[in-house]
Amino acid sequence: MKISVIGLGKAGLPLAAVIADKGIGVLGVDLDKNKVDMIDNGINPIEEEPGLKELIKKHGNKKLKATSDAIGAAKQCNVHIVIVPLFIDENKKPDFSIIKKALESLSKGLKKKDIVVLETTVPVGTTENLVKNTLERNSKLKAGIDFYLAYSPERIMTGYSISRYKEFPKLVGGINKESTEKAFEVYKKFSKPVKVSNARTAELAKVAEGVYRDANIALANELHKVAEHYNVNFWEMKEAAKHQYCNILEPGNVGGHCIGVYPWFLINELDVPLIKTARELNDDMINYYFKKIKNIVGKKVNAKIGVIGLSYREGVKEKAYSRSIAMISLLKKNGYDVYGLDPLYSKEEIENNFNVKYLNDFGKMDAIMVMNKLPEYKSKLMKIKNKVVDVKNMLK
Ligand SMILES: NC(=O)c1ccc[n+]([C@@H]2O[C@H](COP(=O)([O-])OP(=O)(O)OC[C@H]3O[C@@H](n4cnc5c(N)ncnc54)[C@H](O)[C@@H]3O)[C@@H](O)[C@H]2O)c1
User: Residues enclosing ligand 1, CB less than 6 A?
Assistant: First the structure.
């Protein structure tokens, strides 16, 4: 058995490394030639992932090789795991172009008896429709008969990816029974797989996880506003309310290419008012925090506003769907002079990627918005507490 992992990103590379660590030969495929070279030289391109550095050093160019030749990799391997991103466009519709491109290359090297597993989070039905059709059309093979096709959702979280393979059950559902069995046997070699009835069940289970979290954060956000109305300390109330049936999550913004994206897969297709309201409520939180900034600076024209925490969450260098970007553009639209700071990004990266000035003097700011939990700035922020909008309750 030789496994190809297509897409060596924050999700795909830890998976490839974990498989290699079980002694199975892995050929990773990525369009990014620089990343491919790094892996083949035993260098970890995703620094923020604990434990990954050691695995890449140990297995790079040995059990784990990398390539940009997608068709060649498909020809050499008999199990193919696809884990490239799926984004939504400005109308919140999924853009399948990256997945389609990866599948088209794969289909050109696909052979009889091969096993294909999609791990990217997708709208329900994608595996048995788009994936099956794309692979069949180009390969002239029949899915479920000539080759096997299943879905197994990636459930890691950057920062905990390696350990989660050991802890989390890996759902596996095929487009037919044979596909489920074949994929299950493969996953047994490096994870803890659990069979579900079909690919659709596995797809919805993953989307549901994201929706569950989004809706619960929305509830926390609403309760936060309610507490404020009654002059109750939300954080004290949250702890006091905790018992067997009640665990209020932390309020705040929901960013990133997961939780804020997946609900749209359902909202686009179905009448799901609770899920839709939760999504919109969470997206609207930037306006709520913005009003707090306005209360601090009053009518001052061109006020200087610092935004601390620019990636979508602390510890992950990823700006896709970061709410800080939405916040910056809201502040700028309202005529504020915006500065940014994030320990993950250099001064140049901040100025070029986030289109703000670099924040190096907290004292010069009229107000500061703290978007992520970054305790390294806590003592400095404590000194100007009245000017800070503390989204993550870091200053307590
Ligand atoms: N990162 C996470 O915490 C996480 C958690 C759960 C699920 N996921 C799932 O994993 C998917 C991928 O996320 P990620 O965080 O790894 O993304 P990422 O942006 O970190 O990496 C994606 C990688 O895919 C590569 N790529 C793009 N098109 C390709 C192609 N045609 N062939 C080969 N490689 C290609 C890119 O060069 C990049 O290296 C997400 O869409 C999501 O469904 C991610």
Answer: 6-12, 29-32, 35, 70, 83-86, 98, 101-102, 120-121, 154, 156-158, 257-258
